[in-house]
């Protein structure tokens, strides 16, 4: 478990290091002119200077240091500034800044078995430095691999659209925020063991694979045409019924069944035709 440390300020230790360095220079110069004892003192001051200097560390904003003492985890320093720690500690730098990951476009099969291309973009950062440093090997590579696995699992769990599955409650193409929420939860579950926090995840690319894209486009167009024709016919039937009722209620003209059938046929042709109808004047009678 992560343990946050509050080390002592490093400014006093920095002054002490400068004093040791100045003493080393002074004793070395004096030892050359007077005695070997000063040279020994100069070497001792210089060794102490190097030892205490190793304990100084500078932490930039949104960065941290994971500290170890001979293989044992000591804690993590998340404050920024100049600090002094035990010189025998080993430290590992770790960024706490948010990072973008533009995943590569993957070719997978959706729930219905259709090959599709899908890609995501996600924003993540390190939340638990202990898990990121010790529970996984190279947490950045772990993020990349697990994000691809999450995207593949998402694509295989839902159909691309509802052309083949009319009763699908959620599809990849129309899922929107719901699909993105499921993706974020999937990534969070997979990456929590590495101490990674998922801030945002969105599908950045979604399309049928090239080998079936043309056929699927034709299918979508045909479905759209059928749906449009259905609406047109429903509207035309309503208009014809309204016209016949108006003619009958206002006694404009008396129509027998044969004339009604002819009128319905003509109106349906006019209302449902793709092109404008060409009027034909009948100077005679229907019979």
UniProtKB/TrEMBL annotation:
> Would the keyword Transmembrane be found if you checked this record's keyword annotation?
yes
Where does it primarily localize?
Answer: membrane
Identify the GO cellular component terms for this protein: membrane
Q: How does it sit in the membrane?
A: Single-pass membrane protein
Q: What protein name applies here? A: SPFH domain / Band 7 family protein
Keywords, in A-Z order: Membrane, Transmembrane, Transmembrane helix
Report the transmembrane regions from the record.
Answer: 12-29, 35-59
Band domain: from which residue to which, for each copy?
A: 54-220
Pfam families tied to this protein: Band_7
Record-linked PANTHER family: BAND 7 DOMAIN-CONTAINING PROTEIN, MEMBRANE PROTEIN-RELATED
What domain of life is recorded for the organism? Bacteria
List, alphabetically, the InterPro entries matched.
Answer: Band_7 (IPR001107), Band_7/SPFH_dom_sf (IPR036013)
Location within or outside the cell: Membrane
């Amino acid at each position: 478990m992560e343990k946050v440390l509050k080390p002592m300020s490093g400014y006093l230790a920095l002054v002490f290091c400068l004093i040791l360095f100045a003493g080393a220079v002074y004793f070395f110069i004096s030892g050359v002119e007077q005695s070997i004892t000063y040279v020994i003192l100069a070497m001792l001051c210089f060794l102490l200077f190097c030892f205490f200097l190793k304990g100084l560390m500078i932490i930039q904003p949104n960065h941290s240091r994971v500290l170890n003492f001979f293989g044992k985890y000591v804690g993590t320093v998340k404050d920024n500034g100049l600090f002094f720690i035990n010189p025998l500690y080993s430290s590992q730098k770790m960024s706490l800044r948010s990072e973008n990951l533009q995943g590569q476009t993957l070719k997978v099969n959706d729930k219905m078995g259709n090959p599709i291309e899908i890609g995501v973009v996600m924003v993540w950062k390190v939340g638990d430095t202990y898990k990121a440093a010790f529970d996984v090997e190279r947490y950045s590579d772990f993020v990349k691999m697990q994000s691809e696995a999450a995207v593949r699992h998402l694509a295989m769990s839902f159909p691309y659209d509802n052309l083949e599955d009319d009763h699908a409650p959620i599809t990849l193409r129309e899922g929107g925020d719901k699909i993105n929420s499921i993706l974020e939860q999937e990534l969070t579950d997979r990456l929590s063991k590495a101490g990674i926090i998922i801030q945002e995840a969105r599908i950045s690319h979604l399309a049928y694979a090239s080998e079936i894209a043309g056929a699927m486009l034709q299918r979508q167009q045909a479905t759209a045409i059928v749906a449009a024709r259905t609406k047109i016919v429903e509207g035309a039937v309503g208009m014809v019924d309204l016209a016949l009722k108006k003619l009958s209620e206002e006694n404009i003209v008396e129509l027998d069944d044969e004339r009604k059938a002819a009128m319905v046929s003509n109106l349906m042709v006019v209302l449902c035709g793709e092109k404008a109808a060409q009027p034909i004047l009948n100077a005679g009678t229907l019979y």
